[in-house]
Amino acid sequence: VAMGRALARNPKLFLFDEPLSNLDAKLRVEMRAEIKLLHQRTRTTTVYVTHDQVEAMTLGDRIAVMRDGVVQQFGTPDDIYTRPATRFVAEFIGSPAMNMLQADAVKQGDTVLNVKGQAITLSAAQQQALQQTPTTGCVIGLRPECIQLADVGVPGRLTLLEPTGPDTYAFVDTALGSLVLRTGGRVTQRVGDSVRVAWDARDLHVFDATSEERIG
Questions:
Q1: CB 14 within 8 A of CB 46
Q2: pLDDT band at 110 (very low <50, low <70, confident <90, very high)
Q3: In what helix (H) or strand (E) does residue 210 lie, and over which residues does it extend?
Q4: 99-208 CATH, one of 1.20.1250.20, 2.40.50.140, 3.40.50.2300, 3.30.300.130
Q5: 142 vs 4, 40, 100, 201, CA distance in Å?
Q6: Amino acid 109: pLDDT
Q7: Which of 129, 142, 174, 199 has the fewest CB atoms within 10 Å of its CB?
Q8: Are 200 and 146 spatial neighbours (Cβ–Cβ below 8 Å)?
Q9: Three state DSSP letters for 92-156
Q10: Is 29 helix (H, G, I), strand (E, B) or coil?
Q11: For the segment 49-94, what is each residue's pLDDT rounded down to a tens digit?
């Protein structure tokens, strides 16, 4: 009803303040689609406030992620997801949340990150960025969907499986720490099995441990 009244006035700007927060899950999805279709029809500038990352990612052309009233990052949904500017942004966007591992930068020859005595291979761009950064304390971020169960990789033990239908969340204890991975379909391994996990170095995100800002 409120949206209908606003449309009748032919406004230059829409302001939505968590309009879907009190709706059940099914109706929330339907109304989210209606709001997006409304914007596509009217092309009216819209400011949409939400604590729901799915709403932000699906509705926004540009997203401002705020923490305690301070903008942490402003960019497209793809920017926010692929190159989060801070650790806060990285952990806020994505479900399950990004895995975080404490690491030390070892700057001898090729820069590597050391996690609990294990060397983590970095891309050339990440090595160059770390060489130019005075910090040695880092946090490595790795999204669950970027980790795979593999024949070759970091050994670990499967501790928990959470099937959701299209995806399965697998929790693996490794020497690096506990990792959550998100994989499509069913997982043939069982809880308690020994497994190996692997990822592409280009999918790693590196943050300064103190400032929590992105490195590289």
A1: yes
A2: low
A3: none
A4: 2.40.50.140
A5: 43, 34, 7, 10
A6: 65
A7: 129
A8: yes
A9: HCCCCCCEEEEEEEECCCCCEEEECCEEECCCHHHHHHHHCCCCCEEEEEECHHHCEEEEEEEEE
A10: helix
A11: 999 999 999 999 999 999 999 999 999 999 999 999 999 999 999 9
CATH architecture designation of domain 2-88: 3-Layer(aba) Sandwich (3.40)
Identify which of 22, 11, 54 has the alpha carbon closest to the alpha carbon of residue 36. 54
Q: How far is CA 36 from CA 18, 53, 57, 111, 200, in A?
A: 14, 15, 12, 45, 34
Cβ count near 134 (within 10 Å): 7
Contact partners, residue 73, CB within 8 Å, separation at least 6:
63, 64, 65, 79, 80, 84, 85, 86, 89
Three-state SS for 70? strand
Q: Which two tokens stand for residue 71?
A: 């903008």
Using DSSP, state whether 11 is helix, strand or coil: coil
User: pTM for the full model?
Assistant: 0.88
- Which residues, other chains included, contact 132 with Cβ-Cβ below 8 Å and sequence gap of 6+? none
Instruction: Report the alpha-carbon distance of residue 35 to residue 183 in Å, rounded.
Output: 31
Which of 86, 91, 1, 94 is CA-nearest to residue 56? 94
The amino acid at residue 107 is K
Question: Residue 119: what residue type?
Answer: A
Domain boundaries, given as residue ranges, for the chain: 2-88, 99-208
